[in-house]
């Protein structure tokens, strides 16, 4: 049914379930899958200049680590490196923009992530849904 699926991976322990669902949706044809992880800007989360922490270095380290972990997942699934995207920015708009850019016909995303199942409003999945121009499938993750 779908020819190109963008899978939003937050690198949490629940990522596996989200990825497995996408893999099933394309009958294990990894050529139809793209993976994306968005690293949030460190400076937006913490104001550490007063402690003389090198934000630029910290940011780059976060990007490198995320890139490595996402690549490893991509390799395991036989997904080409051009189809594995590590981006910097706000997760929801970056995921939506990338879906448009690559012409994805579906985005697969977890219902919950790092913030846990108790936080419903404001989750990335809801934000991605608003304004998405393709199908969005949320994979139920969490305790209930
Ligand atoms: P959350 O908004 O943290 O509850 O996460 C819900 C889902 O959004 C996760 O299961 C992921 O599929 C996706 N997601 C959250 N944060 C990111 C991120 N930084 N990069 C890619 N996908 C993400």
What does this 3D model show about the protein?
The protein is α/β, with parallel strands linked by helices. It has a single domain (5-140), classed as HUPs (Rossmann fold), CATH 3.40.50. Helices cover 38% and strands 18% of the residues. The chain has helices at 15-25, 42-45, 55-76, 91-102, 124-129, and strands at residues 5-8, 33-39, 84-88, 106-110, 135-139. The chain has a 5-stranded parallel sheet with strand order 3-2-1-4-5, with helices on both faces. Strand 4, helix 5 (124-129) and strand 5 (135-139) form a beta-alpha-beta unit. The structure holds adenosine monophosphate. Adenosine monophosphate binds at residues 8-10, 14, 18, 36-38, 91, 109-110, 112-115, 123-125, 141.
Helix content: 25-40%
Shape: globular
- Walk across the major sheet and give the strand order: 3-2-1-4-5
Structural class: alpha/beta
CATH class designation = Alpha Beta
Features:
144 residues; alpha/beta; Rossmann fold; five-stranded parallel beta sheet; 5 helices; globular; binds adenosine monophosphate
Topology:
Layout: E1 5-8, H1 15-25, E2 33-39, H2 42-45, H3 55-76, E3 84-88, H4 91-102, E4 106-110, H5 124-129, E5 135-139
Parallel strand pairs: 1-2, 1-4, 2-3, 4-5
The structure holds adenosine monophosphate.
């Amino acid at each position: 049914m779908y020819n190109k699926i963008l899978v939003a991976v937050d690198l949490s322990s629940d990522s596996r379930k989200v990825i497995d669902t996408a893999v099933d949706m394309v009958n294990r044809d990894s050529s139809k899958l793209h993976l994306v992880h968005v690293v949030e800007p460190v400076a937006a989360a913490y104001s550490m200049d007063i402690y003389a922490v090198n934000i630029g270095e910290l940011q780059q380290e976060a990007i490198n680590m995320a890139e490595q972990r996402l690549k490893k997942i991509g390799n395991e699934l036989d997904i080409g490196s051009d189809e594995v995207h590590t981006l910097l920015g706000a997760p929801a708009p970056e995921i939506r923009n990338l879906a448009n850019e690559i012409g994805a016909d579906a985005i697969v995303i977890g219902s919950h992530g790092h913030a846990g199942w108790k936080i419903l409003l404001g989750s990335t999945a809801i934000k991605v849904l608003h304004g998405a121009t393709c199908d969005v499938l949320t994979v139920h993750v969490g305790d209930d």
